[in-house]
Inverse folding.
């Protein structure tokens, strides 16, 4: 059994920020394609946010490497069996295209030459393509752990969990931005829609954890011991308090309160903002707990 | 038949002197605080008067299906035709994915080189026709190495005569270290 942590906080930050970026990108794409001008603020803030968390996370990841100056070797090959190889290419492509997407969303005075006439068409094209890349990046963080030979990380639902969590944190990040923005503050309809989407996503996340709890009862002994680290073992406090209660159940209730809109308007603002921040905290702890607890689990001799 | 290099370790002959760890460190300049091989101690197992204690040496299992190899994003980890799993330092970026993926925790990040580090089967000695340092130094003759596919090798002869087990078969990597727990009075001669 592992007693020390090989992948620490820097990796957790990387997994988390990649998810936030992917989620913000999909939120922007969906708002642009489905909502049009009525959802312009969401689409804009999603585009403005998307490149940065993942770029920061990648920078942090480089710091974690034993030979950071050697990192270019990632991009001199495609190792088809290695999730990290696929993921590195996907993240590179995602970051570059999300920067292009951000550029298209800048005010017109920044658009040069022919771009200005075609901005809408280009935005549309990227908005249709980027979700595929974003979903790849978000679920990659789960597949990454899947491939490392540890019982807890071999949970089949890990990529799905990370994907849904990524989407919910991305939507929450956009929610925070549009709630605080002065220039592009969200309309009431936009806020309600973001809250509704987060309700659905957090609901699915709870269902995935429910499925994992059933899985933990019927799996092999290796898996049962691994799950026990989460449910009752050394990461149980972080799991139940930071993920289940503060990260999922409380924001779910708050979002429902927000959508029902019975509270005074000013209170509702704070409920919306607070619940979005909690979703982000919960998403971070999903990565933290799975990454750390997974390293504590090993195979029976 | 192809060569399949591996180890046979007789736990009943190990006295936990840790000479294999010292020999490996000296041979391969392994930094202090890290080790390419180890001896685990089961502690006292059972209830008096039926008690036993087992020492279990180990190192990289040079698996048939190494998970460290498949996860490597740069192709730095590779498996030679004779089955020995190695790291190409020029390609390794130190991402530690292989360290996570190894079910036997046989790898570590070498703080001096910044690369993933592990047992190399003492390749430099092998090329001179010598056994790995841990095998040569083992005073109880608990450690043995050789071609598992060659019927004339010590390891094959041992496996033919005594029941053996592998560690953590559930991990699915098909390790090439076999453990014999029963007493082995005499070591057969062989390559």
């Amino acid at each position: 059994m592992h007693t020390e942590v090989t992948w620490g906080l820097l990796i957790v930050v990387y997994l988390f920020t990649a998810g936030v970026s992917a989620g913000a990108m999909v939120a922007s794409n969906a708002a642009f394609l489905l909502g049009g001008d009525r959802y312009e603020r969401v689409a804009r803030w999603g585009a403005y946010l998307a490149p940065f968390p993942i770029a920061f996370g990648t920078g942090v990841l480089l710091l974690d490497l034993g030979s950071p100056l050697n990192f270019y070797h990632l991009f001199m090959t495609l190792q088809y069996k290695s999730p990290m190889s696929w993921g590195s290419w996907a993240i590179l492509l995602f970051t570059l295209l999300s920067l292009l997407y951000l550029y298209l969303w800048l005010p017109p005075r920044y658009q040069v030459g022919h771009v200005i006439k075609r901005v809408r068409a280009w935005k549309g094209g990227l908005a249709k393509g980027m979700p595929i890349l974003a979903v790849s990046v978000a679920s990659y963080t789960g597949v990454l752990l899947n491939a490392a030979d540890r019982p807890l990380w071999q949970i089949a639902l890990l990529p799905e969990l990370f994907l849904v969590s990524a989407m919910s944190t991305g939507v929450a990040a956009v929610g925070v931005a549009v709630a605080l923005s002065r220039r592009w503050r969200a309309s009431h309809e936009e806020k309600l829609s973001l809250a509704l989407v987060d309700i659905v996503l957090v609901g699915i996340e709870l269902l995935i954890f429910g499925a994992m709890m059933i899985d933990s009862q019927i799996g092999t002994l290796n898996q049962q011991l691994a799950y026990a680290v989460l449910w009752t073992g050394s990461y149980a406090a972080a799991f139940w308090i930071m993920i289940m209660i503060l990260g999922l159940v409380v924001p779910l209730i708050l979002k429902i309160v927000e959508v029902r809109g019975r509270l005074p308007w000013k209170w509702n603002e704070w409920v919306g903002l607070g619940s979005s921040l909690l979703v982000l905290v919960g998403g971070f702890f999903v990565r933290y707990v799975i990454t750390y607890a997974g390293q504590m689990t090993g195979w029976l001799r | 038949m192809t060569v399949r290099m591996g180890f046979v370790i007789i736990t009943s002959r190990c006295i936990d002197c840790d000479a294999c760890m010292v020999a490996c460190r000296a041979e391969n300049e392994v930094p202090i605080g890290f080790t390419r091989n180890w001896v685990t101690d089961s502690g006292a197992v059972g209830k008096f008067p039926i008690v036993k204690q087992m020492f279990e040496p180990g190192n990289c299992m040079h698996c048939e299906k190494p998970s460290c190899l498949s996860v490597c994003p740069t192709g730095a980890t590779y498996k030679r035709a004779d089955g020995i799993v190695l790291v190409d330092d020029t390609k390794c970026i130190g991402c530690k994915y292989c360290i996570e993926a190894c079910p036997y925790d046989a790898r570590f990040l070498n703080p001096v080189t910044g690369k993933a580090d592990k047992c190399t089967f003492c390749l430099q000695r092998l090329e001179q026709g010598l056994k790995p340092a841990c095998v040569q130094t083992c005073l109880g003759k608990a450690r043995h190495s050789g071609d598992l596919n060659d019927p004339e090798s010590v390891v094959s002869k041992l496996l033919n005569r005594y029941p053996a087990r592998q560690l953590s078969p559930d991990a699915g990597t098909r390790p090439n270290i076999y453990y014999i727990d029963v007493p082995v009075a005499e070591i057969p001669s062989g390559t």
Observations:
- Chain A is about 75% helix and 0% strand.
- Chain A has a mean pLDDT of 93.
- Residues 115-147 of chain A form the longest helix (33 residues).
